[in-house]
Amino acid sequence: MKPERSTRGIWVMAAVTGAAAVVLDDPALFLATTSLVLLSAALAIRFRQRMHAIVSSVSITRLSDRKVAQQGDTITVATVFSCIPDPGMTLSVGDLLPASTLPGPEETTTVVAADGSATLSYSLTLLVPGSIRFPGISLTASDAFFSASLAMESEPFCGPELEVHPHASYARARAREEFSEVEKNTPSVYLGSGIRSFREYVAGDDIRAIDWKMTAKHEKIFIREYTAVENYPPLIVLDLPDSSFPVADEKMAQLVNQATSEVVTALKKFGSVSLFIISGVNVIDMALGETDLRRCSTMIRTSAHPRFRFDHAYRWKNRASMRRFIRKSGSADPWPDGDESGRLQERIARIYQKSLADPDIPVFSLQVGRLLNSLKSGDIVLFSLFIGDLSHIREIVYQAWSKKRSVRVSIDNVISTLAPF
């Protein structure tokens, strides 16, 4: 139980009058001190009685939209709270969340109305497979003199219990381990999206791939060879803000939730994902071809906070953009006299060619280039608050475009694709 400011004032007054009574040996001051102490004790006892009456009347109903879900799924939870209110008390209630879950942007705590009712509605992302159970609620009560918080974890306030199944990609991997050798080598029904070439039949080939027109024409059995189906997971780039700029906690939470949500979606769709966490040109952490949602979420949560940027890229000449300009403008050959725009492009192209001949390349540019060259990934999804120097983002985008990779950025909860220009 925590005393409020008014109660602390009573205690201070009691201490002062008590000290004065000792110094002055005044019975009246002793009586005043005793009265103040008794008043504080009476207020504390009264507060406990009122809170006990409220707690005894509490009832909750908690429902989730699913009782069985898959690892990485997001569920919606609704909790209805009711009690017999006390007109002199202010109450707030919140759900105690199960371990290994990630709450959404919605609030999980709310103020109880004057009639003693409250409703919580929020989303949870399930990170770990197994059985999970809601542990209870947290109730905070306060009046003019005291405030107290109580975790209510007994049976009436717990539940429901949810079953979280492993992600589908892990389940398939375990199932394949139990197959026999013949079952594992059974050819897939879906062979590809197009025909790459034809060849003569070899014993053991799938007869469904026989091309009967080629067979009839050449009087030999010919097999179609299909193109491979390539569907690569995305590369998720999380750009953390510079700690030199003030960033609201809500903005950081929104950034973390967006990146985590994209990771969950990628794991559902592809079974793996690659993470590249940076703050400007400073590389914080990376994970390539990660299949464990828990490790991805832990990496984001532990790394995702504003960072002090030791280096900046606003003075760098972007090598990819310089090459792009030279290709677009043609060459650095002299232009005819009188063509001022052409002469300007010629001069810029010469400056860019001289810069490209410089062997000193920024480390961040080399890191991004090696990452994009070594990683077989689909889209690049960039999450950033877009505060301060953005030169490093331009570096990533230009290098991605030079390697024919599309780039999507998240701005105000909307993911848009950046088109090369």
Tell me what the structure shows.
The protein is an alpha+beta fold. It is 37% helix and 27% strand. It folds into 4 domains: 2-55; 57-165, Immunoglobulins (Immunoglobulin-like); 172-226, no CATH class; 235-418, Rossmann fold (3-Layer(aba) Sandwich). It contains 11 helices and 21 strands. It has a 6-stranded mixed beta sheet with strand order 18-17-16-19-20-21. Helix 1 runs antiparallel to helix 2 (27-56). The longest helix is centred in the first third of the chain and has 30 residues, at 27-56. The two termini are 63 Å apart.
Through-space gap between termini: 63 Å
CATH domain class name of the largest domain? Alpha Beta
SS content category? alpha+beta
Number of helical segments with 4 or more residues: 11
What is the CATH T-level topology of the largest domain? Answer: Rossmann fold
